[in-house]
Amino acid sequence: MHTIRIDGQNDPRLSDFKDLRRRPSGRVLDHEFFVVEGQLIVSRAISSDFHIRSVVVEEGRDLNVIRHVDPQTDVFVLTHDQIRGLAGYDFHRGFLASVTRKPFGGLSDFQPDPVSLALVQTTDMENMGSMIRTAAAFGIRQILLDSRSVDPYSRRAMRVSMGAAFGMRFLKLSVPSCDLRKLDNLGVVSFAATLAEDSITIDQLSTQLAAQHASRPPCVLVMGNEADGLPAEVQASSTFRVNIPMDQTAMGGTLVDSLNVSVAAAILMHELTRRS
């Protein structure tokens, strides 16, 4: 391991980590790298097939955590105050790593997995991270994203996903409604999560699939954002629209009309994967 003790936080070799707090976060920028933080996620980055550009470790931390890092990778050792001055915040838990970004694939790279996840206009980084983590837990390894969704490699999304994004294939959706129709032509069934009254319920998924397909086709679950859900044209382009019924009160209404998008996604992912 090539450890380097740094005397000043303005060393040009630390530029990947400079002023992280002030950098725009959430959107995919033209950067060739992203930064992850914390012992667990840095360790997972090193264990993945991603290229590690450099690592920053707080003085006094256990270097055994990053023992598998490539011997040619620079590991910079800084004091706590130096890291705070460099990155602009304290919530790094003593470890930072700069990771070379992998380009997202396109629709032509789609693989007919039993279940994939598509995210359209998912603008909250915590919801993004939570859905990636849940997808990983249920064996989903392919995620399709449109340009208005947040960056799955953003620090907060990576933190919430516990680094699960390192094991995902990410594909770009150019025009989600058109891309869903292209997938439909390839025999891929899509399920759009919605609150629409004329959508099918989660309990009707298997019945609807069995009625139209002799064998289980590859499926894509399509989720939107917290506030507005999925655009109408995306819902119209999906094979099915599906809802999760809310419990009725004694007065006949419901206490809530919907779930948090990451919670709804978890329920639907569990339903689709257990039946696949």
Blueprint of the fold:
Blueprint lengths: L1 E4 L27 E5 L1 H9 L4 E7 L15 E5 L1 H8 L7 E6 L14 E5 L5 H13 L4 E5 L8 H7 L7 E5 L2 H10 L3 E5 L6 E2 L3 H8 L6 E5 L8 H6 L2 E4 L17 H14 L2
Parallel strand pairs: 1-4, 3-4, 6-7, 6-11, 7-8, 9-11, 9-12, 10-12
Antiparallel strand pairs: 2-5, 3-5
Helix pairs in contact: 3-4, 3-8
Task: Tell me what you see in this structure.
- By secondary structure, the chain is of the alpha/beta class.
- It folds into two domains: 2-100, Ribosomal protein L30/S12 (60s Ribosomal Protein L30, Chain: A); 107-274, 3-Layer(aba) Sandwich (Alpha/beta knot), CATH 3.40.1280.10.
- Helices cover 27% and strands 21% of the residues.
- It has eight helices and twelve strands.
- It has helices at residues 39-47, 80-87, 125-137, 155-161, 176-185, 205-212, 232-237, 261-274; strands at residues 2-5, 33-37, 52-58, 74-78, 95-100, 115-119, 142-146, 169-173, 189-193, 200-201, 219-223, 240-243.
- Strands 8-7-6-11-9-12-10 form a seven-stranded parallel beta sheet, with helices on both faces. Strands 1-4-3-5-2 form a five-stranded mixed beta sheet.
- α3 (125-137) packs parallel to α4 (155-161) and α3 packs parallel to α8 (261-274).
- The longest helix is centred in the last third of the chain and has 14 residues, at 261-274.
- The mean pLDDT is 90.
